[in-house]
Amino acid sequence: MKISEASSVSGASARSLRHYEDEGLIVPGRCSNGFRDYCQSTIDRVLTIRSLLESGLPVRLIREVLPRLTDEPDVATDVVPATFLYEVQSYRDRLAARIAVLSDQQAALDTYLREARRPDR
Q1: Do 10 and 52 share a domain, yes or no?
Q2: Domain membership of residue 7 as a residue range
Q3: Residue 35 · residue 3 · CB < 8 Å
Q4: H/E element holding 111?
Q5: 54: which of 32, 33, 66, 75 lies 20 to 30 Å off by Cα?
Q6: What is the CATH classification number for the domain harbouring 50?
Q7: Which stretches of the chain score pLDDT less than 70?
Q8: How far, in Å, CA of 12 to CA of 61, rounded?
Q9: In this structure, are residues 87 and 61 in contact, taking their beta carbons and an 8 Å threshold?
Q10: Is pTM, for the whole model, over 0.70?
Q11: Is Cytoplasm one of the keywords (predicted)?
Q12: What are phi and psi of 30, to 5 degrees?
């Protein structure tokens, strides 16, 4: 399928699809006229990329983990490097800390709103 159809099917903009290609995350085929040709497996890969990006993982980590998530299993990708796991854990810990701060802020706002709505005020 052409880039416009791939964009529609995947929910990723044509610009994002080109960016994923530039970053080495996807490799669409090419038609004889030079147009990109996206197959279903590439669309599936784009959906995985979008999900990982939405979770907040940076492209450099996605590039490293993507083969383990989308390619056929083989010996080379079965072993997850400790440094990669450390980076993902570190990212997860930073995310958990941000969530805690946001939860505290939400609780403070909830308290403020409860107090502001009290009838005796």
Answers
A1: yes
A2: 1-75
A3: yes
A4: helix 82-116
A5: 75
A6: 1.10.1660.10
A7: 70-80, 121
A8: 19
A9: yes
A10: no
A11: no
A12: -130, 135
**Amino acid at site 121:** R
Report the C-alpha gap between 19 and 30 in whole angstroms. 16
Q: Give me the sign of the Cα torsion angle 16, 55, 44, 8.
A: negative
Residue 11 · residue 50 · CB < 8 Å: yes
79 token code pair: 């072993």
- CA-to-CA distance for 115 and 89, rounded, in angstroms? 39
104 and 68 in a single domain? The answer is no
Which two tokens mark 85? 């796991």
- Give the SS3 label for residue 73: coil
- 34 in the same domain as 3: yes
Element holding 30 (H helix, E strand): strand 29-30
Tokens of 13: 């903009």
In the numeric block, which tokens belong to residue 35?
Answer: 């147009």
pLDDT for residue 76 = 54
Closest C-alpha to 38, from 70, 65, 61, 14:
14
